[in-house]
Amino acid sequence: MKKFSVALILTLIIFCSAIQTEAAKKTVAVTPFEGIATYEQYEVGAILTEQLINVIHSSRQFTVVENTQMQAVLQRMGFDNLSGNTAVEFGNLTGANYTIVGKVTMAAIEPNTTRNVIDGVLGLFGKRSNATDMVNPHRGIVEFDARFVDNETGEILFANTFRGSDSAQSYEQALHSAARKAAESFLVELQNLNPFAARVVEISGNLAYIDQGSDSGLRVGDKMEIFREGPPIIINGRIVGTRDEKVTKGKIVEVYPEYAVCKVDKAQALRKDLIVKREQRNG
Fold this sequence. Notes:
alpha+beta, six-stranded antiparallel beta barrel, five-stranded mixed sheet, 6 helices, 13 strands, 34% strand
């Protein structure tokens, strides 16, 4: 009976933890992006919107509003595209915490110059090769402006221009790949705005076991920084943060839904309850 009770309690703890993790996720509404006349036959705006939804959803840090729900709200509002003024209304109707609004500013497809470089190098040695046939012939470029809006306050948390490029076998594939690269650059800024934080719960040599995992968006290869929590920062009688001291850094080597393993540079610096943060990324 005692064993059953312990097992039941552990199950309840895991279940409640999963609920809290899911509840902690904020919801993002990605509004349809305005396209551009260039290559409009490929509906670049729709391609970019799809890639943004996919990239943000795959990060597992946010819940993304379903496309069918989004379209229903747009029809109710009577809009095809949204401006910053209507983004908050849209977000509130979808139940989202944040709304992404923007437009494509540039789309282009050009020859992949890598093929010419290979031909030129081989030509210097008087050689011929079919190596260029293995190189994608088309390079797509997609650029877009976007604003990330807090639906509760109406504040624009960040606004920037994002750009991506990639090569592919066809025009359409090149645009899809470039749009995904651009969307990934947006995700970098979004993750920097919403930094990840966890705690060290177990230690084995130079491995730190931390209490967050893939459910919180962690991936193998993520670079981390480990801090010792310092004294509180108090402004107007309110604690607004802590003076944390960085003790080492590391990289995620194993990831599971509810925990991860971080290999650190300085094992001697490890202690339980140290704070683990994702290293700030560059776009």
